[in-house]
Amino acid sequence: MTSLTRHPDYWRGHFIAMASDCELLIDPCPESRARALLVAAERRVRAIEQKYSRYREDNLVARLHRAEGKPVAIDGETLSLLTFADHCYRLSDGLFDLTSGVLRRAWRFDGCDRLPSQGEIDALLPLIGWERVRYDDSTLSLPAGMELDFGGIGKEYAVDQVAAELARQAPSLSVLVNFGGDIAISVPRAPERPPWQVGIATPSKPTQASYPLTLRHGALATSGDSQRFLRHGGVRYSHILNPKTGWATRSGPAQVTVAGQSCLQAGLLATLALLHETEAEAFIRAQQVPYWIQP
């Protein structure tokens, strides 16, 4: 259900999509204008979710998985996402891999304490390997049995897309786009207005915001295990899975938040930091971006 409420210095729009609370904070404007922006944002998010969700049977991802290695037609938007994924795979030395979603068959982060066996993981590792994905300007193919999962970048991509769409529709209004804690600002807030205020939740108290931050432009993304993890033998395993080993991270910080020019960029760096486990802070410090780590 979509809602729009008035606050002293902004409108707050809300809806649920991609299993997340989706929130817009909109500069003061006529109610009809704020509502139109909210409708446009939800429409864009629904289109992305419908197209790339692995939970649907009637979209591009489902057709790709049913194709048994045959090429599937793609459009320019998908080509852009694949190009970004390829760039990230190469920059991360294989730690970012959209084919690694298949590991969910072994791992469950639903509150249980069941740890997969090495045999279960070993059976899935041959199905991981971005280098075997084939695509060009108009088609995409995967070897039979492999999967492509856009979940690792889908929400951040949606945040950036909505922020860009609202910047086009309302270049004089600043809108803070917040989808489950991943944030981007459409255009900078006017100097006479206070900057947007956001808070980073602590992993131990995920419903309580701390680390208050002020934002006028750019994006923030957070990666962590406050919501999805399992505990086995006294060890806490994050839902962040290493595509090279098939194992969940367990020795890094609980949460990393990164500021960047785009939510996609910030989200990628936050996730890669966690994949570096004990070297997380050294990795993110070397990227020369603002960051916040919570152990």
Automatic annotation (TrEMBL):
GO molecular function: transferase activity
Alphabetized UniProt keyword annotations: Coiled coil, FAD, Flavoprotein, Magnesium, Metal-binding, Transferase
Transmembrane feature ranges: none
Nucleotide-binding as UniProt keyword: no
EC number: 2.7.1.180
Keyword Magnesium attributed: yes
Cofactor: Mg(2+)
Record Pfam families: ApbE
Enzyme kind, highest EC tier: transferase
Chemical reaction(s) catalysed: L-threonyl-[protein] + FAD = FMN-L-threonyl-[protein] + AMP + H(+)
InterPro entries registered for this protein in UniProt: ApbE, ApbE-like_sf
Coiled-coil stretches noted in the UniProt entry, renumbered to this chain: 31-58
UniProt similarity note: Belongs to the ApbE family.
Protein name (Swiss-Prot/TrEMBL): FAD:protein FMN transferase
